[in-house]
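Internal tracking record. Fields below are filled automatically when a chain is submitted to the structure queue. Please do not edit lines marked as system-generated. If the sequence contains nonstandard residues, flag them in the REMARKS field before resubmitting.
Queue: standard
Priority: normal
Entity type: single polypeptide chain
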Amino acid sequence: MSPNGISNGTIVVADDNEGVRGPLVELLRVHGYRVIAVDNGEQALMEICSQPVDLALLDVMMPLRTGFSVCQAVKSSPETCLIPVMLITGLSSAEDRMRGIEAGADDFLNKPVKREELLARVRSLVRLKRITDELENAETVLCTLARSIEAKDPYTEGHCDRLSRYTVSLAEKIGLSEEERVALRRGGIVHDIGKVAVPEFVLLKPGPLDAAERKIMEEHTIIGERICAPLKSFRNVLPIIRWHHEKQDGTGYPDHLKGAEIPLAARVLQTVDIYDSLTTDRPYRKALSQEKALEIMWSETRRGWWDAELVGALEGMLQESPTAFSLITS
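SYSTEM-GENERATED OUTPUT FOLLOWS
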């Protein structure tokens, strides 16, 4: 613990050699870190996955699982991929270092370990983890805000979570990258966050909006972009937020983009958003069947509103697996 009784961070130290592990553990504890010491890779992975950890220091050559293997497992899991991993090794060949980089290691330290170098690198990586945690917390706040806005209207309950899941499914079908799928997963949740600035008498109005009310509602895409803009991790989400109400013929909002001017990710979310709106209850009508919803979407596509390739891909998904969107249509 630090002098004020607060831990500087939790570190997993894994090394099967007690002569190396013991001094590392003692050094880190003296400098205020909470240390979990293990002597094999399997136990290290178990500890990392079972509790909040700020850093993993892994010996490369260990029984049950090597440091490379543990590192790769940590970096492959969405729950642990942001935990920094430092590999400690007596191996110095370029091939071994490349293997560590490929496994996702954040840093390397050669044996014998130098105290000051170790502490400097540990401080740097733990600081990085704290920054990452703050970003995650900010994202959590935004997602909570988005869901609270959604909860005001019983007719849109679950809409954000459905879009988050099913836009990713459509993105996978058309071959979008992992980075684009992550943006769509986040965009599905926060795409309408700008509605926080829309008065409830407009947001919850059961009938058609008049011109003034429609103008207020259309501002939510710009406001939503502004709310999320400070988060650098949301840079790929901002186009989705701002442009998911554009139309292929330029009659959408807020910027009247046309065709390919509308980012593909925004069009993907838009396609699922329309389908979800048609197949869930609304104050002015009951949910439509899958067949009727697609019929309307194709009619509107012929009018020049939606991306025909994406509507076709969505229809293909529903034909391949009629229950793929079961939570949307239930």
